[in-house]
Structures are given as C-alpha cells and as structure tokens.
Amino acid sequence: MANTTNDxxxxxxxxxxxxxALRNExxxxxxxxxxxxxxxxxxxxxxxxxxxxxxxAQTFAQNGDRTLLIDANYxxxxxxxxxxxxxxxxxxxxxxxxxxxxxxQPTAIAxxxxxxxxxxxxxxxxxxxxxxxxxxxxxxxxxFAVVIIDGDTFLQHADMQVxxxxxxxxxxxxxxxxxKKTAFADTLQALKTDEVTRYGVVYNQAxxxxxxxxx
Length: 215
Fold this sequence. Notes:
This protein is of the alpha/beta class and 215 residues long. It is built from 8 helices and 8 strands; from the N terminus they run αβαβααββααβαβαββ. It has a single domain (16-214), classed as Rossmann fold, CATH 3.40.50. It is 37% helix and 19% strand. Helix 8 (181-193) links the parallel strand 6 and strand 7 (199-204). It is an enzyme of class 2 (transferase).
C-alpha cells in the first residue's frame, strides 16, 4: 500500500450533519435491498460531486463501515490531484491485472481506503466497459462494506451510464440554480432508459435557509 493520506477528506464541521443524514438515508435503503457500490455523478461539471464523494465516504467509515473511495473521474481527478500526479491507481491496476491491495491506499481515517485514478488513459471510457472492471468491482465488494465511486458527468460521457448499471445505487449531485431543468430531466430520463432503477439526488450548495444537502 502507498503512503497514508487524507488531503481531500476533511469534512467541514457545518456540513457533518448533512452528510450523516445522507448516509442514514442510504443506510435505510440498504435495509430494503443491499447497497454496496455507489456511483456519485452529476449532469454537468462543477456541482461538487468530488466533495460529496469524499465526505460521504468518510461518514460511512466513521460509522464503522470498511469503506473504499475510488476516483473514476479521469477528466477532472480532484481526488487524485490531492495525492499528486504520480499516484498510481485504477488505470494501472486494470492494466497490470494485479491484486487490488497493491494500489489501494490507506488514509488517516479509520476504515477508509482510497483507490486513485492513476495515469489518464488514452480512452478513459474503455476502462469501464472492460469486463475486468466489473470483475474488480465484484471482488472489492467482498472486502469492503461500501465502495463509493467519484465519477464523471453523466450526460456528457456514456461510460458513466455504463458505470451506473454496474453499481447498486447512483447519487446525482445537482448544484443550486446551476443545472438547467432540461439537463436535469435528460439525466433522469437517461437513468431510466439505462434501467438504473435505484438513484437519488443531492441538492448541493443551497441557500442558508435550506439544508446544504437536500436528499
């Protein structure tokens, strides 16, 4: 395993309750049907999905769930950027067909590990349509109670639609007054068309009169 890090994983005190509430909502859904893999995506860029991914992963870990956060956003790898550009991760793991523990990194937070994006491949979308990724995801579920994937934008990249079908739950992050109604509607329609039956919406960056994260 690589060196311990927690550069992108600190939760602002004012937001802790909102993330706990989101975790609890997902916990209740887990009682209805297992949820071990969660894709965090958004209709367009700039909605805060990497922050939601990292903080939600930390909240699960603090609850005692052994949690893995995967950076699968090669076009804007905010999680991996906090670790340094030379950090090896998902791309190298799939290319080498190696044991996952060789690339999974511990963090300073108990129960929380991280799999960085790794080097940007020539065709990022090819990673997620490769059967090796589905096999990897299946094996990780045998080790971790929760696997949270920080993904790319949903509408602009068809590979995220493929990834959503591989996950148990898709969490759509939508910024306050940042996503047009048509884009939001198109995303929901795509989720339904792709038969992604389990998904929820995080309403992010809301005014102070409302909760920061409405679910």
